[in-house]
Specification:
heterodimer, A: Rossmann fold, 3 domains, six-stranded parallel beta sheet, 16 strands, globular, B: Rossmann fold, Bifunctional carbon monoxide dehydrogenase/acetyl-coa synthase(codh/acs), Chain M, domain 3, Bifunctional carbon monoxide dehydrogenase/acetyl-coa synthase(codh/acs), Chain M, domain 5
């Protein structure tokens, strides 16, 4: 067994791992040791699609065997990859659907607990959907926006409306290749169909289905999730908060929200702040109610309310082991079944809330939007009731401050204020070389690699090399814990140019952009950079790239795929699920360059990953002709006449 | 460190908004809610507030909303640790400060206008349009908002002269410890005012809103930007008006706050004190704030930071040179020697020669030089300029000759008026002391003609006569040439040529405007006639003046040529589809904003009124010039209204399809007086044939509404009343 120090770069995590070991509690860090991983599965060459198998093909001798149906390794690997995309896409999209349904209920007045909080965003989205604004009632507009978005899930033909936001050149590429997404559910269903026994047996064609499905996530389900959450709960603006297990409080009722959807957690935030709840907490001897988050729900309530984060996905079990958590309220996605097991030994309640997601050892309080606040109060009450049952408490001291809440709209604002909002300063800074490139570092944690370590090393190295880093998901939380999401960091780590930009705007060199559905915000930002001008006319021209150094969820594969198909280079770490097939891998890693002007890359070593990202960025700078220092152009009258007004 | 600046600017904004609230309440108390808030003669209210929000402040009570807008923009002050982004906030604070500044200055105009012997206060729309044209044609690339105080009055003067040499306007606001640059300039006898381009707006920093308000008005009047379209108005300023803030001496929170406002316009701040830099670019073209620049180098640095390319021909004279010096006046007491002006005979004459007939650069003074005369003397003067060039044409002689006035005037310490044989020019004592000679007139003419007209002028030879005999002899020759030219141009009609010329010079400001210049209809700015267009095309074949072949005429009365309409459509980016040259009622030509006069249809009188931009009073159209100009300018097609050059009024093609000259029912007195001679002559023409017609045109004494002038017109028997209805 590996030394505990080799398992995580996070001090608080290490402390809790030691405690778990002492107490004989099992966590993901232990189970990963037991699960050595199946070599066929890892290579993507195990086919379990029909009952003639399972069929496994040895990647080292791919030509020597085939599946019972005759499927070759290319078909099997491509099917598995495509089904990962469909799985990831379905997760984001089902989340988006729930938000659309909530918006419709709010607009119809079927729930009084939700309102339209961001009217500006509503009108912007309505305008993008060609919905008439005029002097219509705000709820009418919201209803139409909600219904139009909901209809996108069942849309059968045509082009997904949000995908029309992409740069013109990119849309042409999609149309040419026939991957412009039609409807969200349709693309998922089609991938599932095509990859079932005896349907699509041409790996390129299978991947084409995956491409379309991924786009229906990024420019569909995820984007609906993000946009409508902003309308319901407010588009985030930067704020300061705290992160890591040290945010748990010994003398307060600790409630952790965990999962992905803010629909419930927004209500928990509200319920926990009610005087009646505070009083109830005091009655049981607590000084108050301390709400914190884990995983992407944490990112949602952090960026909108400044609720502190207890930790990222790999810390969910460890947070419980502090003995200080009265309730962990979960909804969907990335909730480990292991928490039930641990909670069963403690006073902690695991409260499942979604009819889609139940688990053993958990208490189920089902959430309904029409009386959301009442349910939230019930949940908070249950947590308070647990407080007196606490046993021994041991909370690590570690916390770090961070600034979070960046997004497409705020970047636009922060670079010019209300009257001069634009991406011009960002594009200028890239053209001038002050910013070498922009890198999205996103994704999960994975105990197969040292927890947080790769995220932090990659990010630190990127900003030290002049790249502006934008982060979402659990990756963002890793880096925030390391203190890199603070504006002061720019001066300590970044080269002169990037520091000057951070200093001029007042930003950290690493921007927290929200949860994993919020990767759609990055799509919007990349598109805005293209539209601002001077950096080519497609996303693939930008000196920008993405990476997921510690990924584990199939959602990450869907995200990576929609970024690549949208024109951004993407580098994944840990391991790569198509290595069993030379053809499929070549297609994703090389052929995509011809089709989509950028491709997938795989590099588990953090230093080499940074090297790869910088090479990708520099090659784009070279192609744009901005690798040399920009000359100061002085304008005479004739040249001024050429400037756009 | 930018955070320091953002913090200072935001704190400054809070103070300025609080001050605005105090002043507003005081004014509300003393003058009342309904007291009028009027900056002098403007159609733009408090122009920054109007431009950026569309809110019109007409009365004191209207400022309450403006104040709310300012307060809403006030952001949190950045924290010392773990701050959230402050650039957007600081820029918002800057706008709040500008709104506050306009409220403060606007209140002054309610109670006690901020004008005295030194400080000028707000520029009215007449000045804005007149000077705006210089921003359009590039003769002034922008302005320097000069704030604070220089280390010494001499240094203040040196910096200002350097700015003027770069053709920039110098607009002064603010002070340090009670001492301002304007006062320093007074100490060294520098002439201040619009004529010299050195404009002291006000001693309080809030007077900076006059600079930025001017810029906002320019975007609305020349750029066709609508009030409230802040994106376009500010981007217009960033990309068209190359202005910047030059801050001398201590920069306090209030100044940072105004500087943040200026950065919203794309106007950077350059300072000689050790203030933190903001180097990344984007809101401005290049750096946003640059500090610690020594006074000696600061003007050069400003130009570089703003990204301004200024081409200045080296003029071999011992004085500063630039258009900014044209407005300088040399009073008799300051004069060393003078020529012309009915005191002595004087003339200027440009004539064309073959290439091998002259030698480039030969400048000769025949007669006494400045060293041969005494202070206060007058000499006769004949400036004979011989020009040769492969593409030189006889028609260009008069064009080059007309340049001499402003070429000579551009020299500091030299004053010049008139042209041909009515010139009057003076050399100041200061210039004489610095070694200025009469031969330097020749140096200026030579250098500038070669530099400004490289495609038509290859060689220039100048002979300056200062003895009576030669002057008399050459004067006869020159007069013969003047007469020949006059007769030639007088006979030129639209029918006698097959090509008109376009002018899209103003598209830099009014992107959809296209002027079509014909022999009988000069450009609406009054500065370009058909010959000028032709010459400009020769000088710069790809420039804003292009030949437009008339082709077939489909309507000779209304003046419609499909080829011309096609041209206009293309050059206006498809915005203007048709143009009819001789009517203002149907497809009239567009107007940029530089028009000398506006012609407006008066339905009750069945005629038209003409108002010149210098006239600030009410007109029978129900609007003063400034309001009229807002609807006519900006490249819009507005049937019933056209912008024109003064000379067009007496052209036989003046709205000829609508009934022509005889439609004129109203003009301001001053305009009538200026054009008296030409108007009288026009009354004699066959198609008018009514020597008394001029007396049938009403003016402001008769009335400033249609109701007032109509009975008078009836009494006078004005022909328009019995003509066909103008509105078909």
């Amino acid at each position: 067994m590996a030394e505990l120090e080799e398992m995580t770069a996070c001090e608080a995590t290490l402390e809790m791992l030691r405690k778990a070991k002492e107490e004989g509690q099992e966590t993901a860090f232990d189970r990963v040791q037991q699960q050595k991983g199946c070599a066929f599965g890892e290579a993507g060459s195990c086919c379990r699609i029909c009952n003639m198998g399972p069929c496994r093909i040895n990647p080292k001798k791919p030509d020597e065997s085939r599946g019972v149906c005759g499927a070759n390794i290319d078909t099997i690997v491509a099917r598995n990859f495509a089904r990962m995309v469909a799985g990831g896409s379905s997760a984001h999209s089902d989340h988006g659907r729930a938000v659309a349904e909530t918006l419709i209920m709010a607009a119809k007045g079927e729930t009084t607990d939700y309102q339209i909080k961001d009217r500006v965003k509503l009108l912007e989205v309505a305008a993008d959907l060609d919905i008439e604004i005029g002097d219509r009632d705000i709820n009418d507009i919201a209803l139409e926006v909600g219904e139009r978005c909901l209809a996108m899930f069942g849309q059968q033909e045509g082009e997904l409306a949000f995908a029309l936001r992409a740069p013109e050149k990119r849309k042409e590429i999609w149309r040419q290749r026939g991957v412009f997404p039609r409807g969200i559910d349709r693309e998922v269903v089609e991938v599932m169909h095509r990859t079932s026994i005896g349907v699509d047996q041409d790996y390129e064609n299978i991947l084409k289905g995956a491409e379309r499905c991924a786009l229906s996530d990024g420019w569909g389900g995820s984007m609906i999730g993000t946009e409508l959450q902003d309308i319901l709960f407010q588009t985030p603006v930067p704020l300061e908060s705290k992160i890591n297990l040290g945010v748990l409080k010994e003398d307060e009722v600790n409630i952790i929200v965990h999962g992905h959807e803010p629909i419930l957690s927004e209500m928990i935030v509200l319920a926990a702040s009610l005087p009646e709840m505070q009083e109830k907490a005091e009655k049981v001897g607590a000084k108050g109610i301390n709400l914190s988050g884990i995983c992407c729900t944490a990112n949602e309530v952090l960026t909108r309310h400044g609720v502190p984060i207890a930790g990222n996905v790999l810390q969910q079990e460890l947070a419980l082991l502090t003995g200080a958590v009265e309730a962990m309220v979960v909804d969907v996605q990335c909730v480990y079944q292991g928490i039930g097991q641990i909670a069963s030994c403690l006073h902690t309640d695991i409260i499942t809330t979604s009819p889609k997601a139940k688990m053993p050892y958990a208490r189920h309080i089902e959430f309904h939007e029409d009386h959301a606040l009442d349910i939230a109060k019930e949940i908070v009450s249950a947590a308070i009731d647990n407080f007196p049952k606490r046993g021994k408490v041991s909370i690590p001291e570690n916390t770090e401050s961070l600034i979070a809440g960046f997004n497409h709209e705020y970047i636009n604002y922060m670079l010019g204020g209300k009257y001069r909002a634009s991406y011009r300063p960002l594009n200028d800074a890239i053209i001038d070389g002050r910013i070498r490139g922009v890198v999205g570092v996103v994704g999960c944690n994975n105990p197969r690699v040292k927890h947080d370590d790769i995220h932090v090393r990659v990010t630190r190295e990127l900003i030290a090399n002049g790249c502006l880093v934008v982060m979402t998901g659990c990756a963002a939380q890793s880096v925030a814990k390391a203190g890199l999401m603070l504006p002061e960091v720019a001066r300590e780590i970044c080269p002169q140019g990037l520091w000057e930009v951070c200093e001029a705007v007042g930003i950290p060199p690493v921007l927290h952009a929200g949860s994993c559905v919020d990767n759609s915000r990055i799509l919007m930002s990349l598109t805005a950079m293209v539209q601002e001008g001077g950096l080519g006319d497609d996303i693939s021209d930008l000196p920008a790239a993405g990476c997921a150094p510690e990924w584990m969820s199939e959602k990450a594969i869907s995200i990576g795929e929609y970024f690549v198909v949208s024109g951004a280079a993407v580098v994944f770490g840990v391991s790569w699920p198509t290595l069993g097939s030379k053809n499929v891998t070549e297609h994703l890693f090389e052929k995509y360059n011809e089709i989509y002007k950028n491709s997938w890359h795989f590099e588990p070593d953090p230093e080499k990953m940074v090297g790869k990202l910088l090479t990708l960025i520099d090659s784009k700078r070279e192609a744009l002709g901005i690798s040399a220092k920009r000359e100061r152009v002085l304008y005479d009258m004739a040249m001024r006449r050429e400037l756009e007004i | 460190m930018s955070r320091i600046i953002a913090t200072a600017a935001i704190k400054g904004a809070y103070k300025e908004v609080a001050e605005a609230e105090r002043v507003f309440n005081e004014t509300l108390e003393s003058a009342g809610a309904t007291a009028k808030v009027e900056l002098p003669n403007t159609g733009y209210y408090l122009p920054i507030i109007y431009a950026l929000t569309g809110h019109k402040v007409e009365k004191v009570e209207d400022m309450a909303k403006a104040l709310e807008l300012a307060k809403d923009l006030l952001p949190p002050v950045p924290k010392a640790r773990h701050w959230v982004p402050y650039l957007g906030h600081a820029l918002d604070a800057g706008i709040a400060t500008l709104f506050a500044g306009e409220i403060i200055e606007g209140c002054k105009y309610v109670t006690n206008p901020p004008v005295d012997d030194l400080w000028l206060g707000a520029a009215d729309d007449v000045i804005m349009r007149e000077r705006g044209v210089e921003f359009v044609d590039g003769s002034a690339p922008g302005f320097c908002a000069l704030v604070g105080r220089a280390s010494t009055p001499e240094m203040a003067d040196q910096i200002v002269v350097e700015l003027l040499q770069k053709n920039l306007y110098v607009w002064i606001s603010g002070h340090v410890d009670g001492e301002s640059i304007a006062e320093q300039l007074q100490q060294v006898d520098r002439q201040l005012g619009w004529d010299t381009r050195i404009v002291p707006y006000g001693k309080e920093m809030s007077s900076a809103v006059y600079s930025l308000g001017f810029a906002a008005r320019a975007a609305m009047s020349f750029g066709g930007a609508q009030p409230g379209d802040f994106t376009k108005i500010l981007r217009y300023n960033k990309n068209r008006i190359f202005a910047f803030v030059l801050a001398l001496d201590y920069v306090d929170e209030q100044k940072y706050a105004y500087a943040a406002g200026a950065i919203n316009y794309g106007f950077p701040t350059i300072a000689n004190t050790k203030i933190p830099d903001i180097l990344p670019t984007g809101v401005c073209t290049y750096e946003h704030v640059v500090g610690s620049v020594p006074e000696e180098e600061i003007v050069q640095k400003c130009v570089e930071v703003r990204g301004l390319k200024i081409q200045i021909a080296e003029i071999p004279i011992p004085m500063a040179y630039g258009p900014a010096f044209e407005g300088e006046v040399i009073r008799k007491d300051d004069m060393y020697v003078q020529f012309g002006g009915n005191i002595t005979p004087a003339f200027e004459y440009v004539t064309m020669r073959e290439m091998d007939e002259i030698t480039d650069g030969v400048i000769e003074v025949v007669g006494p030089e400045i060293d041969d005369v005494n202070e206060g003397d007058a000499l006769p003067l004949g400036i004979v300029v011989e020009v040769a060039g492969r593409k030189m044409q006889e028609d260009f002689e008069s064009i080059l000759e007309r340049q001499i006035h402003h070429l000579i005037n551009g020299a500091e310490g030299i004053w010049h008026m008139g042209q041909r044989d009515i010139v009057w020019t003076r050399i100041s004592k200061k210039a004489q002391a610095k070694g200025f000679k009469i031969r330097h007139y020749g140096e200026i003419i030579h250098a500038k003609l070669i530099n400004d007209f490289p495609s038509i002028v290859d060689k220039v030879q100048v002979t300056i006569y200062t003895n009576p005999e030669d002057v008399e002899k050459w004067l006869a020759t020159a007069r013969q040439a003047y007469r020949y030219r006059d007769e030639k141009t007088a006979g030129m009609t639209d029918e006698s040529v097959d090509t008109f010329y376009s002018c899209t010079l103003c598209q830099s400001f009014a992107p959809t405007h296209v002027c079509i210049i014909s022999p009988q209809r000069l450009g609406l700015c009054g500065a370009y006639n058909w010959l000028d267009g032709k010459a400009a095309y020769e000088i710069d074949p790809t420039g804003p003046n292009q030949p437009v072949k008339k082709g077939d005429c489909t309507d000779p009365v209304k003046g419609e040529w499909p080829a011309i309409s096609e041209f206009v459509k293309e050059k206006s980016g498809g915005n203007v589809e048709n143009v009819k040259m001789y009517t203002m009622m149907e497809d009239p030509m567009t107007s940029c904003g530089c028009f000398e006069c506006i012609v407006a249809f008066l339905p009750m009188c069945n005629g038209v009124m003409i108002v010149n931009r210098e006239y600030s009073g009410m007109t029978p159209s129900g609007m003063p010039f400034s309001t009229l100009a807002n609807s006519v300018g900006g490249g819009n097609v507005t049937p019933g209204f056209i912008g024109i050059g003064k000379v067009y009024i007496t052209s036989k093609k003046f709205i000829s399809a609508d009934g022509g000259f005889k439609r004129i029912v109203w003009m301001p007195k001053e305009l009538k007086e200026t054009l008296k001679e030409q108007l009288e002559k026009r009354c004699q023409d066959d198609d008018v044939n009514d020597p008394d017609f001029i007396n049938k045109i009403a003016d402001e004494d008769v009335g400033t509404s249609e109701e007032e002038i109509l009975p008078w017109l009836e009494e006078k028997g004005h022909p328009a009343l019995t003509m066909d209805p103008m509105l078909m």
